[in-house]
C-alpha cells in the first residue's frame, strides 16, 4: 500500500475505540435536527481528546491514524448502549427506545425504532473527520463505524416490514454519508460488520 508516496508492506493502524480521558464525559454531538456539538465547551474537550488519541498513535509509529471513537458514551453500562443509537439519532426515520436488541450479547440494551423512511439529513462524521485531520497533520486518516447490516439487526423495525428493505434503506443513507466523507478527504473508512462473529440470524437473512 502506498502511504505518503512510499510503499508500505504491512501498514499499521488501530481498530476500535480508544479510552476516553476522564474529563470528557457524556454526549458530544447533537442529533440530526440539532447543532453539531451540544455546546462549545464539549467541542473543545472532544477536540483535545482526539488530539491526545492521535498523538499516542503517532508516537507508537502507526502508519494510519484514527479518531479512537472519542464520541462514544461508554463510561457506564447504560451509556455503552448509546453505541447502538449513534446512527439512529442522526438519521431521519428513527425514534428512541424500541425492543431489546435481537443480538444475544446485547439484549440488555434497547434498540432505536424505525418509524418512517430512513434518510440521510446532514453530515454525521464531518466534525469527527475535521478534528482528526487537524491532529494528524499530513498523515492518512481513517474513520471506523458500524456497518448497515449490523444496524439493521440492532433496530426495531415498525415501518419497512422485511429485513432486506430495511437493510437497503440503511445502506442508502450510509452511502450518502460515505460520499460526503470522501468529498471531505477521508483516506479510509473502516466498517464493522460483526454478525458472522456473533452467529446471529434473522428470518429471511443469512450471515
Automatic annotation (TrEMBL):
Q: Which GO terms describe its biological process?
A: methionine biosynthetic process
UniProt keyword Manganese, yes or no: no
Required cofactor(s): Zn(2+)
- The Cobalamin-independent methionine synthase MetE C-terminal/archaeal domain is annotated at 10-196
Q: Which UniProt keywords apply?
A: Metal-binding, Zinc
Q: Which InterPro entries match?
A: Met_Synth_C/arc, UROD/MetE-like_sf
Q: What GO annotations for molecular function exist for this entry?
A: 5-methyltetrahydropteroyltriglutamate-homocysteine S-methyltransferase activity; zinc ion binding
The protein's name is Cobalamin-independent methionine synthase MetE C-terminal/archaeal domain-containing protein
